[in-house]
């Protein structure tokens, strides 16, 4: 099976630097909608058999252009939602963003899977729900599945489940995944996922980047 993990397009919360991890979440910006259209143009010829989104509207808005092109109806999975910010939800201050980013780093670099933010979830909690969603997708898809999910969630799941990750890719797991960045994995043998490609930048090209956005869920600790 081939799995394409696509981060959603830019949202108003990404621009504001808000830790927006709850449902339904913010809508896409104008740039985010352009990113979604560009991603659809690039991914339309990838023989995608199914499309899957989280319960947050930004993933569904990102998937919509491609779903329309391919005539597919996206399936919604609660398990694909973003790693919760807990008591820091919708905070925009530097300290909160730093704490969230360091949580992800503690999971991926230090192996501290019990770490959590106040009111948040551990890596064990996150993996339980995300693994369940991926297992369901795997059981119902033959061929290539597109999963539209979230920056921290994708980086963490790939970092923890991506098998023997080369050192430079492991650093990327902590570093960043921009809006509509895409990671490709395969598991043809059933022995575990292997990373085929890691595109940290928008699949539609660098002109769709926004380096001015604070974007706390897509970047590394500062």
Summarize the structure.
The chain has seven helices and six strands.
Structure in words:
- This protein is of the alpha/beta class and 222 residues long.
- Among the domains are: 29-83 and 124-143 and 172-185 and 197-206, no CATH class; 84-120, no CATH class.
- It is built from seven helices and six strands; from the N terminus they run βααβαβααβααββ.
- It has helices at residues 12-16, 30-43, 57-70, 94-108, 123-140, 151-161, 167-175; strands spanning 2-7, 48-53, 75-76, 144-149, 182-186, 194-199.
- A six-stranded mixed beta sheet has the order 3-2-4-1-5-6.
- Strand 5 (182-186) and strand 6 (194-199) form a beta hairpin.
- Helix 6 (151-161) runs antiparallel to helix 7 (167-175).
- The longest helix has 18 residues, at 123-140.
- It is globular and about 45 Å long.
- The N and C termini lie far apart (36 Å).
Low-pLDDT regions: none
Write down the overall geometry: globular
Structure annotation, total helices? 7
Largest sheet descriptor: 6 strands, mixed
For the terminal residues, how far apart are their CA atoms? Answer: 36 Å
